[in-house]
User: Fold this.
Amino acid sequence: SYAEAAALVVTGLTAWHGLVELGNVKRGRRVLIHSAAGGVGTAAMQICTSLGAPPTGVVGAESKATWLQERFPEAEVLVRGPERGYAAQLAALPGGGRFDCVLDSLGGKYFSAALESLDPMGRIVHFGATASYGGAKDGLFGLRKWLTLLPGYLSRPWVDPGQLTPTNRGVFGFNMIWLTDRVDLLTAELDEMLDGGGLLARPPAVGAVFPFAQLPDALELLNSGVTVGKVVVEVGDDAEAPP
Assistant:
């Protein structure tokens, strides 16, 4: 469908570039995927499944875990929660919670725990930090937002290059926005993704579709963190501009 096509390119390329180009994910590699029920996360789960790399998906709610487990019944699914430390939750997973690649969109303490979970030659690929910078969005002159952001900024993890060498670990960061001028690179990766990522056999998950006139509602739903898959906004010839 048009909605599935809209949900395919950016999310699929983000997942493919992070996993394959940077994460070196191949058959048999163990992969941890943060925010696994979102647009990029579900694409990443599908790519790993198609490549034969067992994925473990991390989500923030039981409802998302149920939905993700139904979509990927062979995958491990972890619900992060405050009742136990995240590092302990990873260690309790089958295999002791060791991974060859982590696709990280959370940052903060989740980044630190994931980095420690890497086996030698493992790679953590960081493309977001919602755990550090996803605080309150309102308040007087945005004051509540900044009071929430500041602790996350000050407590963000630091990576010591001297500790990466003896442990044979790698840290990569990327943002697809800064690669949009690399048409040659992205075109080649898109062809590879469509050929080997399994995203055509199982179309991307679309969690909600809004007409363009309801764009603010779409953004509010996306910011709520309750959605699964991709939120799509349809723009037609007769679409009205949002208020």
About this structure: The mean pLDDT is 87. Residues 87 and 215 are 38 Å apart (CA to CA). Residues 9-22 form the longest helix (14 residues).
